[in-house]
Amino acid sequence: MNPHAGEGGQLGTEEQTIIIPAVRAARNRGLDVIGPLAADTLFYQAYRGDYDAVVAMYHDQGLAPLKMIGFETGVNWTLGLPFIRTSPDHGTAYDIVGRDQADPSSMRAAIRLAKQLARARR
After folding, report:
1. pTM
2. d(Cα 69, Cα 5) in Å, to the nearest integer?
3. Which of 4, 20, 35, 65 could form a disulfide with 43 if both were Cys (CB 3.0 to 4.6 A apart)?
4. What is the DSSP string of the chain?
5. Contact 4/40 with Cβ under 8 angstroms?
6. pLDDT at 9 over 80
7. Which residues contact 15 (CB under 8 A, 6 or more apart)?
């Protein structure tokens, strides 16, 4: 949430008061989670395969690095909802509507992921 994961409360206390207790609760439920981690290096580590997923604390924190590596095929998957929500990482592209310029790859990837998640819920 805060730069360098809050620096032990020097740059904000949300890590200590909200995130660490949430991570602890998830571990108590048997989930394999760690954190909080500093986002400035975390996304590189995730990119090279050190983690299966990254939970970003806010929209632009998570989507900026995703768009750098997969703008055409990236998928925004919102966790924690009572329904499956996936979307193309690039958004709606209103600026090119009707121009036959849109690349449907990210939308196709979002639909494929939603179908995969729906099958796994059965």
Report:
1. 0.67
2. 23
3. 65
4. --GGGGGGGTT-SHIIIIIHHHHHHHHHTT--------HHHHHHHHHTTS-S----SSHHHHHHHHHHHHTTT-EEE--SSSS--EEETT---GGGTTTT---THHHHHHHHHHHHHHHHH-
5. yes
6. no
7. 1, 2, 5, 6, 9, 36
Backbone angles phi, psi at 84, to 5 degrees: -80, 130
In angstroms, the CA 74 to CA 87 distance is 9
CB 106 within 8 A of CB 90: yes
The answer to whether the CB of 1 falls within 8 A of the CB of 15 is yes
Is 91's pLDDT higher than 90?
no
Does residue 69 register a pLDDT over 90? no
Assign 121 a pLDDT band (cuts: 50, 70, 90): confident
Burial 62-75 (b: 16+ CB within 10 A, else e): bbebbbeebeebbb
| Lookup: tokens for 14 | 């949300």
